[in-house]
Structure to design on (476 residues):
């Protein structure tokens, strides 16, 4: 289990970034994919925007952009139909067999 | 430079049976040996196996099961495009002079582990292909105002074409209405919009122009190759364009010195209905942004130019065998021996094979 997964298991959404290249390295890695320097870890932002979504069994899911170069799939809570670019909040994150993210719609 | 071509081929029927991988591989090679004149084990310099199966040492196993003692043998895995990747490796061995004749055999068993890329944490719990398929479909419908009926036409066409493919897992002539009313997978995907993982094995024999006439009077040459890998993770890529396919096809057209308008037949990686619409546009086979009209016209006129064997949706998708099966279909079309599936006057064909939501693509040009 890597650091990203271990932290998720504790409810922490951490990501790797390269200070040298000023970029998030995603999916996470111990090394920057540009300069190969060791990355540092920090908490990810708690909000993002919807890039695309669909619905399965009455539950919305979709692709959310948390910050530049960092998109992730997760559940989208709420009965309202999401809107592209709508802001969402990272409501919950965990790791069971895979990373699991739940987002909550917070504005239109 | 030395030309390299397809000298022989063989394939199992695609099915839902849990046949052991070794049996699938050897069954397809058995057919290849039976149908390729003058082929004996000692003439084969290399044996490459394309698969996502977890079994080890399959190229050596297949060699032993066929009585071959090759100079080169190993497995190639690249998810859904393992087959065409193995063919390109074989091509390179021959072009380099390390080999003259290589057997490439691909196969996978239903339920193989190649459907899920566990490394890709960006997919979260939505790591099955239906989720990227849903994202592609929703985004494509949004951008091009594509209707569900227009998507269903892809599936109806490919299922209809698969009826004449004796190796296809499906021979059901699904109507547009049946497709639109098939099981709901997500809001944007019906069951019959999806290709179906299944069991199957396919083999081709590649040979250099120095020796190929020993095996066939009608060699089909690989004249163009293009490959591009953008990433392994799904979430970095455009949802309405197969950019790796654009890159790969540009390189393949350039290498073969032809234009898309010269393509007479194409096997397209229709993992989901929307993928065929995206691919015909991104390969330059349809006029720009008119893929739905292009495919609708093929359907209405019963023109088999795209996916004559039924594509992945109609024929089934045994991952490691798929790319090789696509090459066999185009080869048969160019040899004018595709029986009921035959398209008139085919001289140039294209194979499009991709992996993991088009994070990588392979395009081959074949010519008679």
């Amino acid at each position: 289990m890597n650091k990203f997964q271990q932290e998720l298991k504790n409810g922490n959404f951490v990501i790797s970034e390269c200070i040298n290249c000023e970029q998030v390295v995603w999916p996470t890695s111990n090394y920057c994919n540009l300069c190969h320097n060791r990355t540092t870890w920090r908490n990810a932002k708690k909000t993002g925007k919807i890039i695309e979504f669909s619905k399965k069994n009455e539950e919305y899911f979709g692709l959310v952009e948390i910050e530049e170069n960092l998109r992730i799939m997760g559940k989208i809570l709420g009965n309202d139909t999401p809107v592209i670019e709508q802001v969402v909040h990272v409501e919950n994150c965990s790791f069971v067999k895979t990373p699991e993210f739940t987002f909550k719609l917070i504005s239109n | 430079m030395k030309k390299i071509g397809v000298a022989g081929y063989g394939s199992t029927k695609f099915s839902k049976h849990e046949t052991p991988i070794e049996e699938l591989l050897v069954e397809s090679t058995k057919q290849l040996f039976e149908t390729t004149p003058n082929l004996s084990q000692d003439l084969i310099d290399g044996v490459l196996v394309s698969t996502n199966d977890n079994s080890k040492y399959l190229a050596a196993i297949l060699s032993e099961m066929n009585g071959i003692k090759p100079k080169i043998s190993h497995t190639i895995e690249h998810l859904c495009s393992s087959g065409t990747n193995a063919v390109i490796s074989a091509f390179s061995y021959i072009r380099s002079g390390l080999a003259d004749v290589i057997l490439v055999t691909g196969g996978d068993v239903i339920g193989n582990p190649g459907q899920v890329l566990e490394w890709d944490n960006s997919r979260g719990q939505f790591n099955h292909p239906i989720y990227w398929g849903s994202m592609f479909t929703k985004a494509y419908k949004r951008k091009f105002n594509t209707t569900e009926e227009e998507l269903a036409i892809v599936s109806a066409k490919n299922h209809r074409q698969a009826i004449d493919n004796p190796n296809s897992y499906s021979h059901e002539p699904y109507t547009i209405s049946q497709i639109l009313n098939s099981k709901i997978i997500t809001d944007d995907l019906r069951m019959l919009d999806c290709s179906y993982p299944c069991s199957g094995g396919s083999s081709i024999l590649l040979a250099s122009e120095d020796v190929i006439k020993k095996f066939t009077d009608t060699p089909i040459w690989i004249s163009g190759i293009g490959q591009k890998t953008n990433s392994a993770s799904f979430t970095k890529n455009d949802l309405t364009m197969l950019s790796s396919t654009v890159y790969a096809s540009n390189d393949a057209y350039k290498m073969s010195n032809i234009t898309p308008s010269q393509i007479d037949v194409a096997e397209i990686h229709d993992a989901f209905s929307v993928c065929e619409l995206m691919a015909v546009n991104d390969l330059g086979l349809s006029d720009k942004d008119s893929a739905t009209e292009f495919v609708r016209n093929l359907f209405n006129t019963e023109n088999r130019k795209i996916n004559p064997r039924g594509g992945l949706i109609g024929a089934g998708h045994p991952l490691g065998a798929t790319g090789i099966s696509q090459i066999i279909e185009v080869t048969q079309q160019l040899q004018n021996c595709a029986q009921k599936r035959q398209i008139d006057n085919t001289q140039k064909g294209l194979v499009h094979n991709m992996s993991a939501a088009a994070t990588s693509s392979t395009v081959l040009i074949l010519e008679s």
